[in-house]
Design a protein that fits this description.
Layout lengths: L8 E7 L3 H12 L6 E7 L4 H10 L4 E5 L5 H12 L5 E4 L5 E2 L3 H11 L3 E11 L7 H10 L8 E3 L3 H5 L9 E4 L16 H10 L4 E13 L14 H12 L8 H21 L3 H15 L3 H10 L5 H11 L5
Parallel strand pairs: 1-2, 1-4, 2-3, 6-9
Antiparallel strand pairs: 4-8, 5-9, 6-8, 7-9
Helix pairs in contact: 1-2, 8-9, 9-10, 9-11, 10-11
Length: about 325
């Protein structure tokens, strides 16, 4: 139960070692138009600079928590959701992103006025490492995730938004805390923790609400999770699609979900292949082939996965350098 004096919104900032960006992220939450918040900075055993940055704000709304052991990004967030927050609503602020001052002021009233809405979200800008808005990249991003054609207002149910990945859960959303089963985060979800959270919100049967304004700033830089060669969350997406295929109400979308699952299997196979685990990649390639057929890309990946040792990974690197692999 929400305490009478609890803040209405819990802002979760999970951080490790990006102090320069962290300061800007916290500042954007502290200086926002909406004031009834707690700002939880959960430090995953980063440098002492993180603590000093928090102290420098001297804002009583900021709660600093330092993990006893390294959890990494997904578990760091999940721990905060389960045990650190106290607000009725949760908003996630990446430690390298920033909010526009009106972000919470525009989305929180929607959740207050519409009890059927479990998640309210907006569009967002793309910024570079220096904080400059890249308008061309912003427009491409909006189109990529179909937010250019997504109607404003209530969507119920919102499976279409989930499948199109239109909801920027970790970039521009506010979530009703008591609607989510926070215990249902399987370890396999891993880097896909934010689309998994979107799935948990969607399966409640409640609505989402889209406000077609750019109210946050998503930073793309050399240290971004999305631009590294690290595991991209494909294993978690496979688990999401497996859950969706078991829902009777989505029987009409089965072929589409199968295709998405096939693409996720191929993506995970490529991750395994590039890290020298060709033998493990073959299982996921067979799954991809069962759903998509034997495409040229799957065929080439199967051939590379059959090479001994790390030869497949080395060949893949050569092909990518030669710009023959897409």
């Amino acid at each position: 139960m929400l305490a009478a004096d609890a803040p209405l919104v819990s802002v979760v900032i999970a951080t490790y070692n990006r102090p320069a960006y962290l300061r800007g992220a916290i500042a954007s939450a502290v200086n926002g138009d909406y004031r009834n918040v707690e700002i939880i900075v959960t430090d995953d055993l980063g440098s002492d600079t993180n603590r000093e940055i928090v102290r420098g704000f001297a804002d009583p709304r900021i709660v600093y928590h330092r993990n006893e052991k390294r959890l990494r990004i997904a578990a760091n967030h999940i721990q905060a959701f389960r045990s650190l927050v106290s607000g009725k609503f949760i908003a996630i602020l990446n430690d390298d992103d920033e909010w526009e001052p009106a972000f919470l002021n525009k989305l929180v009233p929607i959740l207050l006025d519409k009890p059927e809405v479990v998640l309210a979200f907006s569009d967002h800008y793309i910024i570079d490492e220096h904080g400059h808005v890249d308008l061309a990249a912003t427009e491409r991003n909006t189109r990529l995730w179909h937010r250019d054609v997504l109607s404003a207002g209530v969507h119920q149910p919102f499976w279409r938004c989930l499948l199109d990945m239109s909801i920027p859960v970790a970039q521009a959303s506010v979530i009703r805390r008591d609607a989510i089963d926070w215990q249902d985060f399987p370890v396999e979800v891993g880097a896909a923790w934010d689309p998994w959270l979107g799935y948990l919100a969607c399966r409640t049967g409640k609505a989402c609400y889209y406000l077609p304004e750019r109210l946050t700033r998503y930073r793309v830089h050399g240290g971004s999770v999305t631009v590294t060669a690290n595991e991209d969350g494909s294993l978690g997406r496979i688990l999401i699609y497996a859950r969706l295929m078991g829902l009777p109400e989505l029987a009409g979308l089965r072929d589409e979900i199968e295709a998405l699952c096939g693409a996720a299997n191929l993506s995970h196979a490529m991750y395994l292949l590039q890290t020298g685990r060709g033998h493990d990649a073959r299982k996921f390639l067979r799954d991809a082939m069962a759903r998509q057929g034997l495409t040229p890309k799957i065929g080439l990946a199967l051939a590379l996965a059959s090479l001994p040792g790390t030869l497949g990974a080395a060949t893949l690197r050569v092909l990518r350098r030669a710009r023959r692999w897409r």
